[in-house]
Amino acid sequence: MTIVATPPTPLERFNSLAFRVLLDCLARPGKVGRLPPPPFADLPPLPDGTPPNTVAVAAWLSLLDQTVSFAHAVGAEWLPVDYPLTRWLALRTNARPADPSATDFALLHDPSGTTLFGDLNIGSLLEPERSCTVFLSLPEIVPNGAALRLRGPGIATTATVGLRGVAPTELAAIAARPSQFPLGIDLFLIDQQGRCLGLPRTTQIEVI
Amino acid sequence: MGYVAVRGGSEAVARAEELVACLRLLGGSTPLQLPQIRDQLRHAVSRAMHEGALYAPLLAALAVKQAEGDSIEAAFLLRAYRTTLPRAMASLPVSGREMFCLRRISASFKDIPGGQMLGPATDYLIRLLQPALAHEDVRAVIAAAERYTALVEAGSPQPGAWGRFPKVTEYMRQEQMIVNVPAEPVREEPFDITREPLTFPCPRSARLQAMTQADTGSLMSLAYSSTRGYGDAHPTLVELRYGYLPVQVAHPLTGEPITIGEIEATEAEIASKAHSVTNHAEPPRFNVGYGFAFGQSELKVMSMAILDSVLTQARAGSLAGESGPAANEEFVLLHTDGIEASGFVTHYKLPHYVTFAADLSVLDRAREHHTQRQSRLGQLVDQAITSDSF
Amino acid sequence: MSEASDQLYNFALLDEDAKREIRRKLLKAVALPGHLVPFASRDLPIARGWGTGGLQITLSIVTPADTLKVIDQGDDESVNAVNLRRLINRTTGVTTTTDTAAATIIQTRHRIPEEPMRADQILVLQVPMADPLRWVEPNLERATMMHSEADYGKMWVYMYESVVRAGDLRIASQYPVIVNRRYLMDTTPIPRWDVPKLHMADTLYLFGAGREKRIYAVPPYTIVEPLQFEDYPFRTEYRPGQRCARCGAEHTFLTEHFVSDSNGGRWETTCSDAAYCAKRVAQMEATA
Ligand SMILES: [Zn+2]
Question: Which CATH number does C3-226 carry?
Answer without folding.
Answer: 3.40.50.11310
